[in-house]
Amino acid sequence: MTDRKEQFERLDGIIAKWKDVPGGLLPIMQNAQDIFGCVDGEVEKYIAEATGVPVTTIFGVATFYSQFTLQPRGKYTIGLCLGTACYVRGAQKVMDELEKQLAIEVGNTTSDGLFTLEATRCIGCCGLAPAMMVNDDVFGKLDPSQVSGILEKYRKLG
Ligand code: FES
Question: What are phi and psi of 54, to 5 degrees?
Answer without folding.
Answer: -60, 140
